[in-house]
Amino acid sequence: MKEQEETTPHENQSKKRASRKSAATTRKYMDAAEALFVRFGYEGTSIRAISSRAKMNLSTVVYHWGSKEALFRAVCLRLFSEIVDEQVRRLKLIGERGETLSRADLRAVLRALVEPPLLMPEDANTAARTRLLYGRVLTDPSPVALKVTTDIFGTATELFRSAVRRCLSDLDEGTFYWRYVCAVGSFVIAQSFENRFSYALGLAEGNPDWSIVAEEIVQSMAAALDHE
């Protein structure tokens, strides 16, 4: 049997430097892509524009991701994977109650969706980026963006819809559909465009306590879903 060749300390250091350089390159390119996806959407963002913003070669995306779609997916997963995992965890716990859910459980279901993206990011910069990208990708009309976001959020979305439906089992399908659309829409828009609303309405947003904001969104969604 051929013995495994040993690497020298110099070779090990070279590999570590190359790995750090590759990680830095990947992060820089993804940062540029994230900023442009938020501003222009999936279809409005080109690989050339991302490369120009990142000051890197066009071949970088092919080398690291293979396609714009794969890069878009990676950008989303970087901010959303832990959030989606937490949403799924909380919604599964609620779902284990079986058919016993009622209107009294509605706000717990809403908090399981609303709180992770608003409260989990540990620093203000990551939290702001998460809110902007979260709202942007969920409202992006591109078929590719829809496919990617459905893949990422599909499980959490279905668990959430099912739980809300069981809480409001007495509503007919048409009424439930439009209440659900309005409620979820307010959640998405509140994250993505709060700065625009503040500017347009002449309001000073300041530095909000996002735990309070999350509860306000929950109460607003509950009112949209469950009213006379």
Descriptors for this entry?
mainly alpha; 10 helices
What does this structure look like?
With 228 residues, this protein is an all-alpha fold. It contains 10 helices and no strands. Helix 4 (68-95) runs parallel beside helix 7, helix 5 packs antiparallel against helix 10 and helix 8 packs antiparallel against helix 10. The relative contact order is 0.10.
By DSSP (H or I, 4+ residues per run), the number of helices equals 10
Instruction: Please give the radius of gyration in angstroms.
Output: 21 Å
Largest sheet: none
Distance between the termini: 78 Å
Fraction of residues in helix: over 70%
**Which residues sit in consecutive blocks of at least 5 with pLDDT less than 50?**
14-18
Number of strands: 0
Shape: elongated
The percent range for strand residues is under 5%
Mean pLDDT: 86
* Structural class based on helices, strands and sheet pairing: mainly alpha
Q: How would you spell out the order of helices and strands? A: HHHHHHHHHH
